[in-house]
Specification:
Elements lengths: L8 E8 L5 E11 L6 E11 L10 E6 L9 E8 L3
Parallel strand pairs: 3-5
Antiparallel strand pairs: 1-2, 1-4, 2-3, 4-5
C-alpha cells in the first residue's frame, strides 16, 4: 500500500444549499499581518459535495478535500458539526 498525504480539512458555515447535492461553505481564517501585526480575517467560499442533501443553510459543517467531482467541486461534507437554530 502506498502512503498518501493527509487531506485538508476545513470547518465553515453553509451559505447556500440551493443546488442538488451541493452546498457552498464559507470558511473564515484569522491571520496576523506579516508587517503590521494586525489580525486580518480572510474568508473563502468552497463548493462541497453533500451526497444526501443533509446540510442546510446556516449549519456548521466539516469539509474534506477530495478528487474533482465537477468543474468547481473539490471538497465533500464529512460531518455536520452544529445545526442552525
Amino acid at each position: 500500500m502506498t502512503d498518501r498525504a493527509a487531506r485538508k480539512v476545513r470547518t465553515g458555515v453553509v451559505v447556500s444549499d440551493a443546488r442538488d447535492k451541493t452546498v457552498t461553505v464559507e470558511v473564515t481564517d484569522s491571520i496576523r499581518h506579516a508587517k503590521y501585526g494586525k489580525i486580518v480575517r480572510r474568508r473563502k467560499r468552497l463548493h462541497a459535495h453533500d451526497e444526501n442533501n443533509d446540510a442546510n443553510l446556516g449549519d456548521t459543517v466539516q469539509v474534506m478535500e477530495t478528487r474533482p467531482i465537477s468543474k468547481s467541486k473539490r471538497w465533500r461534507v464529512t460531518e455536520i458539526v452544529e445545526r442552525a437554530r
